[in-house]
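Summary of Year 1 activities. Much of the first year was spent building the evaluation harness for sequence design. The harness presents a backbone, in tokenized form, and records the residue chosen at every position. We chose the following record to illustrate the format because it has been used consistently in internal testing since the harness was completed.
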């Protein structure tokens, strides 16, 4: 969201300068997009390690598969038993 807000503000401010390839404004906006993309990928890598994994197929138990797991006690991907009812 921060990249979007900053990008829109800068695009409105530098409206005519962004169309030239030799403008520093264009390249600063491109650089900001690359840095934001790298930070998002790094953030997803670190947060992905904290998610629950199926002990059988090693896939993440999030989203729709988490509802299947809670409802049936089985993995939403491979169908193996995860939650023992004993």
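For this record, the design step produced the sequence shown next.
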């Amino acid at each position: 969201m921060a990249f979007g807000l900053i990008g829109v503000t800068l695009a409105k401010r530098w409206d005519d300068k962004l169309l030239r390839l030799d403008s520093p404004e264009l390249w600063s906006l491109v650089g900001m997009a690359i840095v934001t993309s790298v930070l998002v990928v790094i953030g997803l890598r670190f947060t992905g390690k904290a998610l629950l994994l199926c002990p059988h197929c090693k896939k993440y138990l999030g989203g729709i598969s988490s509802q299947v797991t809670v409802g049936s006690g089985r993995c939403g991907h491979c169908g193996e038993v995860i939650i023992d009812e004993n």
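Residues 24-48 form the longest helix (25 residues). Quantitative recovery figures across the full test set are reported in Table 2.
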